[in-house]
Amino acid sequence: MGRLDAEALGAAAPARRLRVFEPYEGREVEFRAWPLAALLDAVYGPDWRGEDELLFTCRDGYQPSFPVARLASYDAYLAFERPGASDFGIDKRESGRVQRVSLAPYYVVWDNLDDEILRRDHDYGWPYQVVGLDLIDPVERFPAMAPPADADARVRAGFRDFRIHCSRCHAVNGVGGAVGPELNAPEAPAGARDPAWLRRWIDDPSAFAATARMPALNPALPQRSAVIDALVAYLEAMAATAQASP
Description:
By secondary structure, this protein is α+β, with helices and mostly antiparallel strands. It has two domains: 6-136, Sulfite Oxidase, Chain A, domain 2 (Alpha-Beta Complex); 140-239, Sandwich (Immunoglobulin-like). The protein is 29% helix and 24% strand. It has nine helices and eleven strands. Strands 1-2-5-8 form a four-stranded antiparallel beta sheet. Helix 6 (153-165) crosses helix 9 and helix 8 crosses helix 9 (224-239). The radius of gyration is 19 Å and the shape is globular.
């Protein structure tokens, strides 16, 4: 968030108490938070609405993103306190057990209590331990991950869906998360598996490996089958750019 500290953020937009359905705990939780759109106005001016994506950087280097256009439809907030709790944290299931996870310094939350679509999105767009954000053009920011310029509409949709659902954990051509494997080495799924297998894996990894760490694509996702098809089309298109692993 530029160079603004908590005092400057508070001066840019009044904080409010916001009750949300917290996706990790699966229940209603109250936070104190600033409206994200107002903070972006204070830092960037109104022109930020014409940008493509918001890329968040978290304390551990995790970098999720979501389209700027999402803020035109739904209200996001930058939370900094959980009133009544002993700390600014949540109880989250990790590695098979529930653990207390710190959210500090900031947690992006959405006003989803009465919004079925946001509730259906589960934890998409809820990064925690946020230490910064950037307005980006994804093709310029991640050229190695971008499909060829002449790619068709389904491949371009798959690129968008990959950034939303997959790049938090997986890399393509060395760009993306490191929680899961690189997906574009020749021996990786896009290069070593046929499209039908890859589609079934994205649909439900546990059908192949009961202990698979990767979850199934959100079962409540709208047009889920089309999203899976687009992801497979994107990975197929990117396979031609694969480089052998060192």
